[in-house]
Design brief:
single chain, alpha+beta, 3-stranded antiparallel beta sheet, signal, Lipoprotein
């Protein structure tokens, strides 16, 4: 008596895409991808590096902008819409 997990096609494609996307990435890249995903889920725009953070700050007209330094010394930032 086993159990079966029902997985939709879209979930399978999403999971496969995540694996393929992160297969050649460093742990820093994976953290940034996950950080951006969590930020989007929370209604925030997230960026890493000077260029991305400049763009996020420029587009953050009606929001709350924050910046920080990541554990590897990279600049991180977010804009949470109000």
């Amino acid at each position: 008596m086993g159990f079966r997990i029902r997985v939709s096609t879209s979930m399978t494609i999403l999971f496969a895409g995540l694996i393929l996307t992160t297969a050649g990435c460093s742990s820093t890249d994976i953290k940034q991808v996950l950080g951006k995903g969590v930020g989007q889920a929370a209604g925030a725009q997230v960026g890493y590096g000077a260029n991305e953070c400049f763009a996020v700050k420029s587009q953050c007209q009606q929001g709350h902008f924050e910046s920080w330094e990541t554990s590897d010394g990279t600049e991180g930032c977010s804009c949470k819409s109000l």
